Amino acid sequence: MQMILIATDGSVCGQQAEDEDEGVALAVATGARVVFVHVQPEVDSSRYQPGEVSEQTEESHFLLDRALAKALQAGVDAESEIVEGSPAQEIVDAAKLRGADMIIVGSRGLGTISSMFLGSVSRDVLSEADRPVLIVKEKPAP
After folding, report:
1. What is the CATH number for 54?
2. What is the largest CA-CA distance in the chain?
């Protein structure tokens, strides 16, 4: 395994997908590089001055900087990318573009009824991806 794409959204499951006992640990064990991807809604650039960054983009940078720090602490070669659009499609596209061997994504743990109505990014990634997908479920608090 040479490249792992880890999608992060700031949720508890997204953070656990990044952590040393999931995504980063797998990268350490396999010697793989990591790319952290955060998908944000499309930003209307006409609302901002040149060089000005939206609050969404600032939050995306914060999430990715935190993920990169985890990788750096573990000695994993990592980079990050912000993409805009539909989360599942953008994650799958980023994995293809980067040649990722695996996608790791968190599951928010919605119940069957809720996920049926709200949709599920992790479920959509799993059904659309042409490579292995690891879905990290929220771990119960100790």
Report:
1. 3.40.50.620
2. 47
Q: How far apart are CA 1 and CA 95, in angstroms?
A: 13
Q: How far apart are CA 26 and CA 20, in angstroms?
A: 8
Domains identified in the chain, total number: 1
In the chain the beta strands, taken as DSSP E runs, fall at: 3-7, 33-40, 78-84, 102-107, 133-137
Amino acid code (one letter) for 103: I
**pTM of model > 0.90:** no
The parent domain of residue 127 ranges over 3-137
Phi-psi region of 75 (alpha: psi -120 to 50; beta: other; left: phi over 0): left
Burial tier of 141 (Cβ tally within 10 Å: 0-12, 13-18, 19+): exposed
**DSSP single-letter state for residue 102:** E
Task: Say if 142 falls within a structural domain.
Answer: no
How confident is the chain (142 residues) per 10-residue block, as mean pLDDT? 91 69 89 94 63 66 91 95 92 97 81 47 93 84 62
Non-local (6+) Cβ contacts of 20 within 8 A are 28, 70, 74
